[in-house]
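Running co-folding for zinc ion.
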Amino acid sequence: LENNPFPLRILRASRRAAVAGAVLVLAASSLWAKGRAPAARFTVQPSTVTAGRTLAVWLETPDAVKAATLVFQKAEARFFPMAENRWRALIGISSLESPGPKTAQAVVQGRRGKPARRAVSFSVQAGTYPVSHVHLTPEKERLLELMERDGEVLAKIYRKPGISEKLWSGTFILPATGVVSSVFGARRSYTGRNWLSPHSGTDIANSTGTPVVAPGRGRVVYRDRLESFGNVVMLDHGHGVFSYYLHMLEISAKKGDLVDKGAPLGLMGQEGVATGPHVHWSLAVAGERVDPLEWTVTEFP
Ligand SMILES: [Zn+2]
């Protein structure tokens, strides 16, 4: 404007027009910014997931994101920032999930304005799970009811969003030495019942008193005795990932402790409903139990 060659009158008129125009442009652009949903691109890993395993969903966006969630079946997972413009959500796929194409619903909320709502597609393939038949005596029928009740105590914790910080790094280690005496997802049919109940974890058997350790870094969020499970420890590893350990003889970890990979949690036992000394290891991702052994071979960075 310092070197404006135009006569004053023309300048005044054009300035009025320019100011009016600028106000219009500002109003329009702020309306646009307020109403615009963030741009979002999704990739799933793996594109075909086996029922009973973990699915990673990556979100790429050039826009500022306040929060993003992913809903699949009853589970809701949160996206966490992993790198510049890159977010990730982990969801557990039930071992009972039917094979075929699936859709999860993502909601990405920017700093302001409307959220972006997108369908995220992936495929589920069937897992191979052994079937075993369990004969229940009337006394054990009662124990089965106790297991449902005690399972709810634990579910109330691992269905929560938990710690936002990712505490683990690398692959998980086994929580105990021993042999796998029952795999995750093994179908158990009970006498007089027409449903198959999948085993919700991996059983590792060894002698009583074998140390049980944390398979990855985590915070102790539960340590107590439950009638059907014996002594129980649960860890929150962050990003919606929880693990828990049942039937322990004794617990050494304290509630609130931050334990490193390999740190002692307690000793293997056969407390509660168990036919021999073993540790039952469950892993829940966004509230759904998945195969913990996958985490010992596949890194979820
Ligand atoms: Zn078990």
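Result summary
The pocket of zinc ion is lined by residues 182, 199, 201, 203, 280 (CB under 6 Å).
The radius of gyration is 26 Å.
Job closed.
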